Structures are given as structure tokens and as C-alpha cells.
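User: C-alpha cells in, sequence out, please.
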């Protein structure tokens, strides 16, 4: 364990840290007029976070509150104490910016990231291929901080440059890679096209995969392409929470396709029913709601991520010895990505599960097209690609996808099958659901 004094605590020990953290957070927020006004809308004061039911009664936050306070929403320190800004990705309209003080960036972030990376098997002396983006996005800087804190040698390549990266994975002998799972699969294919066998010529031991969650089937196929003993781990977080710092899978949770919430001493994670906003029971699906306890510049209280996860049926029984930190399933989808198709709720991850289970299809390239932007839609098209070497006709492959979606989800959809290379590849977060006019179908 990277921080055994915290990671070995039981649940009561974690909850005590959280109670103390909420009291300190409330005292800090009380010094900020913006925060006092936010709490006043719910008939509360920030200091109420110190009471036993303070967090449960605190108002929620979402993008509407942030955009109403553009350009620096809920900034809780003077501007001259902000070392840098980060911004949300994948949003409509103006991105939302979040400040980071020197302590946020140089103390808290390395503390959080090193714990996750170490739990996933990253060791001092590893050579790291850092493939997440930079600029205003927190992904690249967060992994840089984590790799440095773990004692790794970092190659901050960022996304793109696929042919070169596939060679460098061989020539530089990287031990760990951080990137989108779809981009890693794309690099596997790029290596093969250059006559490089990733299974024997790459030296990867572990991958830290984020940007989107992938199915166990996709993960198994990816691991089969890489050196024996290689293990891929999903990492999860949000810009609002402070980066990809909330959860990661570990060798102890990998087989169950689960992640562990490893930073519950610095971030409170509630799993709430998105309709009632009450905590879900073990094994049930809920929305991730985040409260940051130690962020200085831009904290959040009860931030609604819109991400849906299943709380583990056995959230506290990890054989790693982490008794007080809960386990969750991989991200199922987002409340705002949910598609209601002819009365059936469909998430893109369910379509991905079907595609990953059908041999001969490109696992990293697929899309869902909707004919109009509406809660209930009249037509949905799934576009796939055949992989190199597949001998079926496009019509045959499309028919199999259509049959499997019908068998698994009980819905009839249109399926388009394209030759390899037609659909977009995503270096970071994939945009799976696209809207297009019905005439384009």
C-alpha cells in the first residue's frame, strides 16, 4: 500500500476522516460570499456541513450553477494564489474552468494519483508512456504527477503519433502506459502493420486506461494482444473532482470487473439514485456525486457527475486489506447519454458489449446514430467496421450484429457495416452517440 495508515483503515476510520474534513471544508467555504449564497438557497450555511446530516441536506451542484458564475465559478482563493487552471472536456457551450493552487497541484494531486497507480501495480523505476492530453485538460498533468510520485521515468508523449508510438513501445521498452483503451487497441493494430508483434516485442506490464469504460470482453481481447502477464486497469475521475483520482481497478478487483474508490479520505463519493437522490443499496445502480474535502482553489460540494455505476454487492470485502474503501463496477453510462428507444433504456456501453463479443469486428471503431434529438427516438443505427482478415460480407456482419442486439436488448436497430478505417478513431474520450438527420440513414 502506498499510504497504509489510510488504506488499511476500516469504514469507521474513513468516515471519521470525512466528518473532520467536512467541518474544515465548511469553515473554509464560509469565508466565500459565493458559497454562502449557494448554501443559502437551500436554507443552510456552509458551517452546517459539520453537523451529522449536513452533507445529506446540502444543495447539489451541476453545470448550470457553474455557468451562471462564469468565468471562474466558486473560486475559493484569491486569483494570485491560483497556480494554473484546468477545464472540463466534452461539454457543450463554454468549457468550465477550475483553479488549482500550488498545494492542489503539487501536494494533493500527487498524493491521490500515486495511491491509485501503486494499487494498480505501477512500481518505482517503471518507464511510463503517458498518452493522455495536455493543455487545459487535467489528464496529462495528473498522470505526470502520479508517475513522478511513484518514482517512474516518464515519457509524456500525449495522444497521437500512432506509428511512432507503436515503435517507441518496442524501442523504449515501456513498462506502463496511460491512455484511452481504444487508442491502445489502435496502437496494437499500428504495430502489427509495421511488422511488430506487441505480445513479444513490447514490454508493457500494466496499462492505466481512462476516457471511457470498456467491457470485460474488450479488455480480455486487448490483454490477449499484449505480453504475458500484462494487465489493464480502468481509472476513473472527473475534472470537477480534481482529475482521474476517484477509483481504479487493481489486481484484486480485476477479475470482478470492479474498481475501488481509493481516495475516500480526500473526496467523498455518494452513489445516489438519480431520481430520488437517496443512497442506493449494495449491488444497485446510482449516480456518482462528489464532494472534495481538500481542494483549495475550486472545491465542489455534492457535484452531480451524471455518471452511473453499480455499487458492488460486496463493497468492503477486498482481499487487498483495504477494508474501508468501497468497490464499484465500471461506468455503465451517463444519465445524459441514456437512450430511450421504443420504450427500452439503452446505454452505449451495452452496444459496446455486443460488438466486443462478435469476432471479426474492429473493437475500437463503432458509432450510434440517432435520427433526432429526443428522449424517445424513432430510429437508431449502429455503425461497425470489419477487422482486417474477416472474410464475411458487410451484410453478413451487419446481420449478426443486428441479431445479437435483438437477443441481448430486445430491440431492432439498423446496422451499417463499413470496411476497416472508415469510422473515426478516438485518441481520448470517444463520442459514441451522434445525431444526424433522418435523410442521412
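Assistant: Sequence out:
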Amino acid at each position: 500500500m502506498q499510504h497504509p495508515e489510510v488504506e488499511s483503515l476500516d469504514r469507521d476510520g474513513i468516515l471519521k476522516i470525512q466528518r473532520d474534513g467536512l467541518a474544515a471544508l465548511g469553515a473554509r467555504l464560509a469565508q466565500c460570499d459565493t458559497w454562502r449564497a449557494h448554501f443559502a438557497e437551500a436554507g443552510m450555511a456552509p458551517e452546517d456541513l459539520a453537523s451529522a446530516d449536513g452533507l445529506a441536506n446540502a444543495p447539489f451542484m451541476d453545470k448550470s450553477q457553474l455557468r451562471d458564475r462564469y468565468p471562474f465559478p466558486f473560486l475559493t482563493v484569491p486569483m494570485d494564489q491560483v497556480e494554473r487552471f484546468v477545464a472540463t472536456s466534452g461539454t457543450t457551450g463554454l468549457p468550465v474552468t477550475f483553479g488549482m493552487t500550488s498545494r492542489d497541484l503539487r501536494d494533493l494531486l500527487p498524493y491521490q494519483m500515486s495511491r491509485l497507480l501503486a494499487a494498480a501495480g505501477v512500481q518505482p523505476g517503471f518507464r511510463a508512456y503517458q498518452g493522455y492530453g495536455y493543455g487545459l485538460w487535467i489528464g496529462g498533468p495528473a498522470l505526470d504527477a502520479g508517475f513522478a510520485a511513484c518514482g517512474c521515468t516518464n515519457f509524456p508523449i500525449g495522444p497521437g503519433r500512432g506509428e511512432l508510438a507503436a515503435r517507441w513501445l518496442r524501442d523504449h521498452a515501456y513498462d506502463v502506459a496511460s491512455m484511452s483503451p481504444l487508442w491502445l487497441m489502435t496502437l496494437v493494430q499500428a504495430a502489427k502493420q509495421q511488422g511488430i508483434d506487441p505480445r513479444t516485442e513490447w514490454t508493457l506490464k500494466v496499462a492505466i486506461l481512462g476516457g471511457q469504460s470498456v467491457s470485460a470482453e474488450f479488455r480480455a481481447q486487448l490483454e490477449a494482444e499484449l505480453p504475458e502477464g500484462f494487465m489493464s486497469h480502468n481509472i476513473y475521475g472527473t475534472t470537477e473532482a480534481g482529475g482521474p483520482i476517484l477509483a481504479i481497478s487493481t489486481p484484486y478487483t480485476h477479475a470482478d470487473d470492479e474498481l475501488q474508490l481509493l481516495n475516500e479520505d480526500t473526496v467523498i463519493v455518494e452513489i445516489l439514485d438519480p431520481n430520488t437522490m437517496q443512497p442506493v443499496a449494495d449491488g444497485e445502480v446510482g449516480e456518482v456525486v462528489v464532494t472534495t474535502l481538500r481542494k483549495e482553489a475550486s472545491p465542489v460540494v455534492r457535484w452531480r457527475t451524471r455518471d452511473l455505476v453499480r455499487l458492488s454487492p460486496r463493497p468492503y470485502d477486498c482481499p487487498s486489506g483495504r477494508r474501508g474503501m468501497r468497490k464499484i463496477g465500471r461506468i455503465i453510462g451517463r444519465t445524459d447519454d441514456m437512450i430511450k428507444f421504443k420504450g427500452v433504456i439503452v446505454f452505449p456501453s451495452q452496444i459496446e458489449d455486443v460488438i466486443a463479443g462478435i469476432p471479426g469486428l474492429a473493437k475500437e471503431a463503432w458509432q450510434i446514430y440517432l435520427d433526432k434529438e429526443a428522449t424517445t427516438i424513432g430510429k437508431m443505427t449502429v455503425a461497425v467496421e470489419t477487422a482486417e482478415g474477416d472474410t464475411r460480407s458487410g451484410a453478413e456482419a451487419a446481420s449478426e450484429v443486428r441479431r445479437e442486439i435483438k437477443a441481448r436488448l430486445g430491440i431492432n436497430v439498423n446496422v451499417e457495416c463499413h470496411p476497416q478505417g472508415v469510422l473515426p478513431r478516438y485518441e481520448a474520450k470517444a463520442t459514441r452517440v451522434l445525431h444526424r438527420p433522418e435523410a442521412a440513414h
